[in-house]
Amino acid sequence: MMKDRKCIIFGITSFAKMIRYYVEKYSDLEVVAYTVDRRYKECDMFDGLPLIEFEEIEKKYCVEEYSFILALGYKHMNEIRKQKYHAVKAKGYKLENFIYPNTSQNYFEIGEGNIILENVTLAYGVKIGNANIIWNGCQISHESVIGDFNFFSVSSLIAGKTVVKNSCFLGVNSAVRGARTLEDYTLVGAGCYMNDGSKPYGVYVPVRSLCLENKKSTDML
Ligand SMILES: CC(C)(COP(=O)(O)OP(=O)(O)OC[C@H]1O[C@@H](n2cnc3c(N)ncnc32)[C@H](O)[C@@H]1OP(=O)(O)O)[C@@H](O)C(=O)NCCC(=O)NCCS
């Protein structure tokens, strides 16, 4: 279906194809082309649409008429998405947010270039920066502040008044206790519960089956 607003997707992975599906089904944007850096372009079409070298994109799609969706994942702790966010902006294009329609949208601020999928709660007073990816089922609780270039895997949970700075990765089903701060480039492993804040570049994993010494189950339940 032809739509008035047209965009280009950066990326050619299965994630990029999935994002095209969501954007075309649930937004007022039509996807007209995909783009990647010249060295990754091996053919002229992708997913039935033209595949254009990013270096040449403005020759075919002018900045006044076309905007961008960043469909780039968490590789190298989100660095590729960060670089391309800056590269797209340097060319003068607008970056679109994609927000799934059933998202609970009680945030106070949101930047650009974010992707937010199904069943996400952005609770009262949340602030969100740029180029974050928030997968389905995530809960960003009240008054939390999310910086730029973070990746929230399925069902990750940020309790209230928490700060997630920039370029962090939260694994599936991870949780951060309220009023804590995750510093830049924190990696929270799948299923991890963050009782405290984090160190920059810190890697956190859940404790494996810890047996409490001097305790018996019958004493506790
Ligand atoms: C944390 C994580 C990144 C580690 O990945 P990995 O490097 O492949 O994991 P490995 O099992 O090789 O572990 C690396 C090291 O950490 C140690 N480690 C991992 N988990 C641990 C745990 N729970 N407790 C103690 N040590 C642990 C390993 O023993 C290993 O140590 P070694 O190098 O001395 O042998 C991974 O477990 C994870 O949580 N990934 C995120 C998955 C996810 O949510 N994906 C969603 C994508 S949409």
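^ coenzyme A complex. The first helix runs from residue 14 to 26. The pocket of coenzyme A is lined by residues 153, 171-172, 189-190, 205-206, 208 (CB under 6 Å).
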